[in-house]
Specification:
A: Protein Transport Mog1p, Chain A; 2 domains; globular; B: Rna Polymerase Sigma Factor, Chain: A; Arc Repressor Mutant, subunit A; 70% helix; 0% strand; elongated
């Protein structure tokens, strides 16, 4: 259909349309405001800029400080006084340290986006891989019962794109049911079309799919199939995945999956 | 932009900054209008950007790079404007000159609506890259330098942004058009 072939000029026209001149009053009003505004010393602007850029890292440092000051002593107390069986259950707050982030990504990757979802609206991340049905229909599946939330990040590599994803359930049985539903999404022709996949040694149950797909990162399909590989696995009550598209390095992707698995309890 | 003028403004000369503001405002406003797709919001963003430029100008170490820096300040103001506003719902747009919508123009109108809706769902960063590439005809390397982000990030943001807009166009090509009442 010519409609599809002609998209580039249509997009160019659409994005390019707009006003060419600023209303005079805008500049005049700004200049009036400037009369009342002192300039900031250079050092102060640069310091604020550094703080702005370090925003996520600063938060991570705060979290690390809380862990050291509160969680570690509590854990030690628990180890000392509670001699029960070990509990590997993942909690929502753990996902930030399991899913790949700037401090755990390979050096050649650049973080592009982060999506999180929490108990009050848990589906945003869970439906990202869904291709076989509308997201709303997937949300109604019994397999999604017990969903607590999730975390998703995607990255640019040199000639590839990557994603890291995890969704949390109340218990491992519910996570197992969801894992089966995601296997269908990845394998079926109506989904990612990646076939049966191969078992792999990650978490409690894992499959790696390699092939070509129209299912690109995010939820918009590609016009042409692209090569990709995705690891999908379950570790206790969490379902995890990491994937690479285009010219990804399979060894690197495998290492990323193993590192994610090692960070999961 | 004359570096000596920037140097004077950087040293607190308000007249020099006023001359700079009038010189750069059309170009900045054009970009803001295309990123925000809202005249009033673009005017507000330009105003905010000009005040921030004045305030932070002493931190610009190389006056010859003023223009790229100014665009960065503007795009950050656009980013703040988008983040501050609630997600846009469906919007109604009048055609230029108030021309009537007739059957021949119906698909064009629906296509624009779909594109507009898809564009408003893009992140501020994706919008900015699209505008810099399509409207300013900037190369990816130049966009990366202007926005101070890696070129891989520019490439992927552009990729996803175009994909989203193309999807909107393809959705528009489906029979849903016939459901629009264009009487």
């Amino acid at each position: 259909m010519s409609h599809v072939h002609d998209t580039e000029p249509v997009l160019r026209d659409f994005v390019s349309e707009g006003a060419e001149r600023a209303p005079d009053w805008v500049v005049s009003t700004a200049l009036t405001e400037i009369d009342r505004t002192p300039q900031r010393p250079a050092w102060r602007t640069r310091l604020l800029d550094v703080e702005r850029r370090l925003g996520p890292a600063a938060r991570l440092l705060e979290i690390a400080a809380v862990l050291v000051l509160v969680v570690v002593p509590l854990a030690l107390v628990r180890l000392t006084f509670v001699a029960g069986p070990s509990d590997r259950s993942v909690e929502l707050g753990d996902l930030a340290s399991i899913v790949v982030w700037q401090d755990t990504m390979p050096p050649s990757w650049t973080l592009d986006s982060l999506i999180t979802s929490e108990p009050e609206a848990p589906f945003g991340v869970a439906t990202i891989p869904v291709r076989t049905m509308p997201a709303e229909a997937f949300e109604d599946l019994p397999a999604l019962e017990g969903l607590q939330g999730g975390r998703y990040t995607d990255f640019s590599g040199t000639d590839a794109v990557f994603m890291s994803w995890a969704v949390l359930f109340s218990d491992s049985r519910q996570a197992g049911a969801a894992f089966d539903a995601y296997l269908v999404e990845l394998g079926s022709a109506a989904g990612w079309g990646l076939g049966a996949g191969e078992p792999v040694d990650l978490g409690d149950r894992a499959v790696v799919f390699t092939g070509e797909t129209h299912a690109l990162i995010g939820n918009t399909p590609t016009e042409d199939p692209v090569p990709m590989q995705i690891y999908l696995w379950r570790a206790e009550n969490v379902v995890l995945a990491t994937a690479g598209w285009f010219e990804y390095d399979p060894d690197e992707l495998r290492q990323v999956a193993e590192a994610m698995d090692a960070r999961a309890p | 932009m004359e570096p000596s003028l920037v140097e004077r403004a950087r040293s607190g000369d308000r007249e020099a900054f006023s001359a700079i503001a009038f010189e750069v405002s059309d170009g900045l406003f054009a970009v803001a209008h295309r990123v925000l797709r809202d005249f009033d919001a673009a005017a507000d963003a330009l105003q905010v950007a000009l005040v921030r430029m004045w305030r932070d100008l002493p931190s610009l170490s190389d006056p010859s790079r003023f223009e790229a820096w100014a665009y960065r300040v503007l795009i950050r103001a656009c980013h703040d404007a988008i983040r501050a506003r609630p997600p846009a719902g469906p919007q109604l747009h009048l055609l230029d000159g108030g021309r009537a919508i007739v059957a021949d123009h119906a698909s064009e109108v629906v296509e624009r609506e779909e594109l507009d809706h898809a564009f408003r769902r893009l992140t501020p960063e994706q919008r900015a890259i699209l505008v810099l590439q399509y409207y300013r005809d900037m190369k990816l390397e130049a966009i990366a330098e202007l926005l101070q982000i890696p070129i891989g990030t520019v490439r992927s943001r552009l990729h996803y942004a175009k994909r989203a807009l193309r999807s909107a166009l393809e959705a528009d090509a489906r029979p849903v058009i016939t459901e629009i009442d264009v009487r």
